[in-house]
Amino acid sequence: MPEDFPSNSIGIVTPQGHHFDQPLTLANGYTLDTYDIIYETYGTLNTARDNAVLICHALSGHHHAAGFHSKEDKRPGWWNHYIGPGKAIDTHRFFVVSLNNLGGCHGSTGPTSINPKTNKPWGSRFPTLRARDWVESQKRLADVLGIQQWAAIIGASLGGMQAMRWALEYPHKLRHCVSIAAALKLTAQNIAFNETARRAITSDPEFFDGDYLNHNTIPKHGLSIARMIGHITYLSDDGMGKKFGRELRSGSFQLGTDEPLEFEIESYLRYQGNVFSTVFDANTYILMTRALDYFDLAREYNDDPVAAFSHAQCQFLIFSFTSDWRFSPERSREIVNALLHAKKSVTYAEIESDYGHDAFLIPNERYHQAFRTYMQRIDISQSKKIDREDKHAH
Amino acid sequence: MRIDLDEIQSYISSNSHILDLGCGEGDLLLHLQEKKNITGVGLENDPNHIAQCILKGVNVVEHDLNKGLSHLANNSYDVVIMTLALQTMKSPDKVLDEMLRIGKECIITFPNFAYWKSRWHLLIHGRMPVSDLLPYEWYSTPNIHFCTVRDFEVLCHERGITILHNTVVARTRIDQYMTRWNKNLFGETAVYHLTR
Questions:
Q1: Residue A158 above 60 pLDDT?
Q2: Which family does the entry's similarity section mention (chain A) (predicted)?
Q3: CA B10 from centre of chain
Q4: Contact indicator for B60, B50 with CB cutoff of 8 Å
Q5: Is A326 assigned a ligand-binding role in the annotation?
Q6: Contacts of A133 (CB under 8 A, 6+ apart)
């Protein structure tokens, strides 16, 4: 491990890919004949193979959750604060698997991939996906890695919803489900934000009904606005106020002047939107937001979350954040109440934070301590670790 | 262990499903898990207490009891317990009703305000009693609804609540002996095992 990285960093990590030949029948009836999944692993799988942890990413996440891809890499993986040696998801104890979901745009098969039947990008023809499709593809990845049962499946937001779906689809394949800032289903307001974002994308003239890659373009403006809308909802009013207030980026209100004005928040959002629109795929954004909208944990259980959770066998850890209004604490309490009614083992903490929905990513002492303490209590075999040499070879 | 935990344990059957309201650092639930193989969960509002529960492997759900318990289903627990917290509730009578709705039985412990030392403190000093068990000044105390053993039994009678067991405990041997003669005067902490 290079000396430049702090001792609680995993250091350099290298993504791996797996090609799946076995057709995958999706929730919408469509069959994907072949597909690829890109993933990273951190830590080492023990000989009992009972220390594996699956990370499910959120809307715009990907497989690179921790560590750096190179020495020159400026930013570590998206959940680096919480995954690493001695951290909440301690890579000294756990073998962590983090993948890019099917339909993503970071290496797993998705709308930007080439459809083998047409030799063109999938684009608008990529099938719609639901959380259960991700669960199924993640389960197949577990089979490839020789993981019969996850010590824990962990996710926030859309990732937390996948983790709960796992608990119902494969109750015996996980011992703990950690669902952070999630919900049993989205509210009308939440769907409304997603639809507004999607409309921003689809009304961009460069969208071409989703087949923009065939026209050698991308709906940059639409995706950028979609991201700006999303970003507002991931922050809290207070947090935004503290960070930006009414500070001006340029111009002034001095009488007699008419120079162009820009607030810091405008500049920030525009920057975030622009960056995102060049690194993320518009069809994937549409696909992921639709999967969020469609998700309803209890739909097939007569809309009864208690009946749904009665199938679960694992223990649950639920977190919410006080200033999160996109996935508010109330939504997490609905999860907790259903789990209590179903007589499931559940621990719930409502973490004080100004950072809104984004709080799950940001360092927070109470959150980290509670998360870490819980994870430390998960039983794993103390057997000799395998491919230890591999890890230190980096 | 707090002085009333042994009494509580004696009222609980093995393998019960337990809800502990205001579970603190989870000591009672941990004790009952070890001695009686119970399942259950504690509700707690204090982040430090919640952290301790997680450390001990006790299921804990963050919740402000003053926001009510309407989210919990009827008869969903064998026993609902509240130790030394009833006097901190905004509406203790409603909490009691809710506990008996949610649990088949409930166990309540509270500091007995008619304990002779409290009476002595008020009588001699003319000031609100402050003790090591209740170390708060009147203006900053979380204990806003003190009652006595007799008060509590009147409430149970008025609400038609059945007292399955009750006892009082005291920390000194002489007080404990004297409770046989007068619970309301010598009992420091009251323990009630109730059902509808």
A1: yes
A2: Belongs to the AB hydrolase superfamily. MetX family.
A3: 15
A4: yes
A5: no
A6: A24, A26, A27, A102
pLDDT, tens digit, 9 for 90 and up, residues A312-350: 999 999 999 999 999 999 999 999 999 999 999 999 999
For residues A167 and B119, give the distance between their C-alpha atoms in angstroms, rounded to a whole number.
56
Residue B76 tokens, joined: 């969903």
Does residue B127 lie within any of the structural domains?
A: no
A186: three-class secondary structure by DSSP: coil
With 50 as the cut, is the pLDDT of residue B75 above it? Answer: yes
Burial of residue A297, with CB atoms counted within 10 A of its CB: 0-12 exposed, 13-18 middle, 19 or more buried:
buried
Number of domains in chain B: 1
Residue B163: what pLDDT? 97
Q: Is the pLDDT of residue A77 over 90?
A: yes
The size of chain B, in residues, is 196
Model confidence at A388, pLDDT cuts 50, 70, 90, reads: very low
A219 near A206, Cβ under 8 Å? yes
Q: In the 8-state DSSP scheme, what is residue A173?
A: G
Q: Distance (Å, rounded) from C-alpha A308 to C-alpha A310?
A: 5
Structure tokens at A92: 């000294």
Residue of B nearest to A342 (CA): B76
Considering the domain boundaries, does residue B46 fall inside one? yes
Burial B2-27 (b: 16+ CB within 10 A, else e): ebbbebbbebbeeebebbbbbbbbbb
Which residues have a Cβ under 8 Å from the Cβ of A272 and sit 6 or more positions away? A227, A228, A231
* Domains assigned to chain A: 187-294 (1.10.1740.110)
Over residues A260-312, the pLDDT tens digits come to: 899 999 999 999 999 999 999 999 999 999 999 999 999 999 999 999 999 99
Cβ neighbours of A374 in B, within 8 Å: 54
Q: Which residues of A are catalytic?
A: 157, 324, 357
Q: Which of B39, B50, B76 sits opposite A370 (nearest CB)?
A: B50
CATH of the domain at B80: 3.40.50.150
Grouping H, G, I as helix, E, B as strand and the rest as coil, residue A183 is coil
Chain B residue closest to A379 (CA)?
B57
Q: What is the ipTM of this complex?
A: 0.93
Strands B189-195 vs B103-111: parallel, antiparallel or unpaired = antiparallel
Are B60 and A366 in contact (CB < 8 Å)?
no
> pLDDT of B158-178, one tens digit each?
999 999 999 999 989 999 899
Using a CB-CB cut-off of 8 Å, the residues of chain B touching A352 are 47
- Give the position of tokens 């954004």: A285
Any known ligand binding at A227?
yes
On whether any CB of chain A is under 8 Å from the CB of B41, the answer is yes
Q: Which of B15, B54, B69 to mutate to test the interface with A (most CBs of A within 10 A)?
A: B54
Cβ–Cβ contact B61 with A under 8 A: yes
From chain B, pick out residues whose CB is under 8 angstroms from the CB of A337.
71-72
- Inter-chain residue contact B73 with A369, CB threshold 8 Å: no
pLDDT in tens, A137-147: 999 999 999 99
Which residue segment(s) compose the domain that B181 sits in? 5-113+146-195
Residue B128 is assigned to a structural domain of this protein: no
Nearest CA in chain A to B75: A341
